[in-house]
Amino acid sequence: MILFAALLAVLVAVVLMTFRTVAGPTTFDRLLAANSIGNGAILIVALYGFLTERPDFIDLTLTYALLNYVGVFAVLKFFRAGSEDEEQAEEAR
To answer: Contact at 8 Å (CB) between 17 and 37?
Structure first.
């Protein structure tokens, strides 16, 4: 029963994070909310695995956590490179 309540709480949090992703004033706010949604998805899969007594879902959550971690750094590097290119273009003018 407690795991079901935790699953429901995480689902509500993911829904709220989805609204934050859409309404974020800056790109970095949206990126942070998207990363939080990924973390929520990891928790949902892990809790579901324990509710259905299939702890082998933990392997899936670890893989998804690694992808989420690497993906955030890839997107941040992309935005950082984009802002440096814009600054160099403005300095050249």
So the answer is: yes
